[in-house]
Amino acid sequence: MTAVTAMTATASPAGAAAELRTALREAGLPVGATGTDDYVQLGTLRASDARQLARLIRTGTKRTLKAARALREICEAYGVHLPELRVRQGRITLGACRVDDAVRLARLLGASSPRPDAPDADVPDADAVRDLLAQAFSAATGGGTLDVSVREEASDVVELGALDARTARRLIAALRF
Predict the structure, then answer these.
(1) Is the pLDDT of residue 117 over 70?
(2) Taking each helix axis from N to C terminus, what angle separates 3-11 and 13-26, rounded to the nearest 10 degrees?
(3) pLDDT by residue (tens digit) across 48-91?
(4) What tens digit of pLDDT does each residue of 96-107 get?
């Protein structure tokens, strides 16, 4: 099999099923996997094999899950609400948050409060908060990046991107300091 053939095979659903079957077999778990359109279905697992698979998944994602848990706890302690924080595809997705929570997070990372556009405005401009948080995040994590965007349909909500476990640990350290 050539490299191109191997890449094409793993990109298709059938290739994904074959890759999963191979990984399960290498881990000593005799379970079938079949692929259709966008899904891969696992065959029946013995209870002991299911427990082993769960242990393997937890072991493989241990650092990321631990960092996500610590980040959730420290943000909750500071009153920064990140209700969509979760591990997804091996990365910690921070998700949507209100502008005032984004401001609180930026201030915890060393940023000064953004000024509202108008003197009578209670909520700072979401675009200014986006820029402020991105800069504060980079400075506090030693150059780490965080994608921050403003929701078009809700200008009081910002979307925070995903972090790898290493960057999340640097963020946690910055928040603890």
Answers:
(1) no
(2) 100
(3) 988 998 988 888 889 999 999 999 999 999 999 999 999 998 89
(4) 999 999 999 999
Cβ neighbours around 67 below 10 Å, total: 22
DSSP state of 79: T
Residue with the two structure tokens 């191979």: 22
Q: Are 114 and 122 in contact (CB under 8 A)?
A: no
Residue with tokens 């659903």, as numbered in its chain? 13
Residue listed under structure tokens 């995040």? 137
Q: What are phi and psi of 112, to 5 degrees?
A: -85, 155
Q: Which residue has the tokens 């259709």?
A: 36
Instruction: Give me 106's structure tokens.
Output: 């930026």
Residue 128 to residue 123: CA distance in whole angstroms: 11
Most confident of 19-28, 52-61, 85-94, 144-153: 85-94
Q: Please spell the DSSP secondary structure of 90-159, one letter per residue.
A: TEEEEEEEEHHHHHHHHHHTTPPPPPPSSTT-SS--HHHHHHHHHHHHHHHTTS----EEE-SS-TTEEE
Percent of the chain at pLDDT above 90? 45
d(CA 165, CA 87): 10
